[in-house]
Amino acid sequence: MKPHTLITTVVSALLAACGQDAVTVALDDPHRFRAVDGSGAVLDSLPARWNCVLDQLTGLTWEVKTDQPGLHDWRNTYSWYAPEEAHDELDYRGTPDGGQCAGSDCDTHSLVQAVNQQGWCGHHDWRMPTRDELASISDVRLADEPPTTYTGVFRNAQAAEYWSGNDYSFQWDAAWAWNFRFGHDRVEWKATPMHVRLVRGESVNVERVKD
Fold it and tell me: Which residues is 55 bridged to in the sheet?
């Protein structure tokens, strides 16, 4: 049995003996993540379904993907697009509507707009996560059994690449993504369709990812 699997198994058994749900545990800190319902209320226990996750370590609230067609479907993919970016000699904005999705145009800007208009989990300040913020919910120790995130709370997480909101400073038409198959960052063309997990809040205790 792999080390992280053994840890999870032991902790799950201990929690079961205490009458607690094992999926509230995230390897190193059993109190780190809290479920958030559709109105934005932080829940004391994990229900059958939940819409968002509060990371109490970083202060960030994350979108949780669903297995239903629509705006939050885990199958949706998006091109990287930021219309406020410079587009004089070189066009840094990226590619509009270049993915495959439902509920909005299939680019990162349109997704953020649609989720904020919807008021997901009671909030209208959703945004693209930074590369460092994506790293904060990734654990390379899970690379043997990906995705490299805590699937007990991040339902429908994929062992795939997710866009960050960060440009790649050395290439106008590229941006940073996080690979949840191997647990590291990577640069990709902005036109490439990828998954997105939105976030809200001002982060603390987030380590800088080295370039």
Answer: 33, 60
- Between CA 53 and CA 43 the distance in angstroms is 10
Task: Write the DSSP symbol of residue 128.
Answer: P
d(CA 106, CA 155): 21
d(CA 179, CA 146): 10
pTM of this prediction? 0.86
Tally of CB atoms within 10 A around 84:
8
Helix, strand, coil content of the chain in percent (nearest 5): 20, 25, 60
Instruction: Give how far Cα 71 sits from Cα of 3, 76, 118, Å.
Output: 37, 8, 10
Looking at residues 66-77, what average pLDDT do you find?
97
Residue 2 φ/ψ, nearest 5 degrees: -70, 150
Q: What distance, in Å, lies between the first and last C-alpha atoms of the chain?
A: 33
Identify whether the C-beta of residue 47 lies closer than 8 Å to the C-beta of residue 37.
yes
Quick: pLDDT tens for 10-61: 233 333 333 333 333 344 576 899 999 999 999 988 888 899 999 999 999 9
The residue written with tokens 């982060």 in the block is 203
CA distance 185 to 100: 23
Q: What is the mean pLDDT of the chain?
A: 88
> 3-state class of 39 per DSSP?
coil
pLDDT at 137 over 80: yes
Asked if pLDDT for residue 195 goes beyond 70, the answer is yes
Please tell me the distance from the alpha carbon of residue 45 to that of residue 61, in angstroms, as a whole number.
16
Residues in the chain: 211
